């Protein structure tokens, strides 16, 4: 999943060019320059232009890339005070982190509340817009979503226990995704037992009665999150930990139809990793004095 998301970001040309520190410095620089930009510049500062009218209202500085104040996916390419209006690819919005960088980005993490307008959508199959991450059309399907590039989609399924969050564009815990109809109770049909504050503070674990490999963690004793053991293991209710399934009486045959005894043996007793040939010890030879 992370690889696919990172690939998408590269394909769209949206990898951040500055570090967070550099971005913060740039934002502070722009804020500091606003008072002077709002004032009418003296003619002496405009000698390179024929008259003040040549400086577009959309250009707070003569050169750079600047957002539109009403439409989140519109921006202006300013050259010598003249603005060239541009639109991001459908589904992306303009990221105004620096006027020196022309950057359209996914809308997650970019505040468009004060400029909510967007261009007319160009939908296709499973893609409400040409680019982006979109939930499944059936609201009852919580763990499946699409990512779209140039109107072509790939369907992705979240790991077990997670649901797609339309707010962040990633898979998340049900209580954090807050997707209607996709809460822990609806998905798992499990409710955390009531416990006292001391037990609740330990985030108690409970077995999934239908699947030996999985269990529930009750965060603060109240919010259930489904987690699992690695292949070949099962949750041991007595210890509250994962162990090899064949060691747990009630789960000893759980992998019988999935893995052979030889495969289980290999998982439980993996061969030692070979030492690198020709390696030199880092320990310095020392002689007693």
UniProtKB/TrEMBL annotation:
Tree of life domain: Eukaryota
Acidic residues compositional bias, start-end: 45-60
Entry keyword Transferase: no
Region annotated Disordered, chain positions: 25-62, 262-289
Keywords: Chitin-binding, Disulfide bond, Glycoprotein, Repeat, Signal
Family annotation (SMART domains): ChtBD2
Keyword Repeat: yes
Signal peptide stretch: 1-17
Listed SUPFAM superfamilies: Invertebrate chitin-binding proteins
Extent of Basic residues compositional bias: 280-289
Domain Chitin-binding type-2: 56-114, 124-184, 189-253
UniProt-listed Pfam families: CBM_14
Name of the protein: Chitin-binding type-2 domain-containing protein
UniProt organism field: Xylocopa violacea (Violet carpenter bee)
Taxonomic lineage of the native organism: Eukaryota, Metazoa, Ecdysozoa, Arthropoda, Hexapoda
């Amino acid at each position: 999943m992370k690889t696919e998301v990172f690939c998408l970001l590269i394909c769209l040309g949206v990898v951040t060019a500055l570090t967070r520190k550099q971005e913060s410095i740039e934002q502070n620089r722009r804020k500091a320059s606003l008072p002077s930009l709002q004032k009418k510049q003296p003619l002496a500062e405009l000698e390179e232009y024929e008259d003040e009218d040549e400086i577009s209202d959309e250009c707070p500085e003569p050169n750079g890339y600047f957002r539109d104040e009403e439409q989140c996916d519109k921006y202006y390419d300013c050259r010598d005070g003249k603005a060239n209006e541009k639109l991001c690819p459908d589904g992306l919005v303009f990221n105004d982190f620096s006027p020196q960088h022309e950057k359209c980005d996914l809308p997650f993490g970019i505040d468009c509340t004060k400029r909510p307008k967007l261009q007319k959508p160009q939908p296709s199959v499973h893609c409400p817009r040409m680019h982006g991450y979109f939930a499944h059309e059936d609201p009852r399907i919580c763990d499946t979503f699409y990512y779209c590039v140039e109107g072509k989609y790939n369907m992705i399924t979240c790991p077990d226990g997670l649901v797609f969050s339309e707010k962040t564009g990633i898979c998340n815990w049900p209580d954090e995704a807050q997707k209607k109809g996709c809460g822990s109770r609806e998905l798992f049909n499990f409710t955390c037992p009531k416990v006292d504050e001391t037990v609740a503070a330990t985030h108690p674990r409970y077995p999934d009665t239908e699947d030996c490999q999985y269990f529930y963690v009750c965060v603060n004793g109240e919010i259930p999150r489904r987690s699992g053991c690695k292949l070949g293991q099962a949750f041991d209710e007595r210890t509250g930990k994962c162990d090899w399934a064949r060691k747990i009486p009630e789960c000893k045959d759980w992998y019988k139809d999935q893995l052979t005894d030889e495969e289980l043996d290999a998982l439980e007793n993996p061969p030692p990793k070979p030492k690198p040939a020709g390696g030199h010890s880092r320990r310095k030879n020392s002689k007693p004095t």
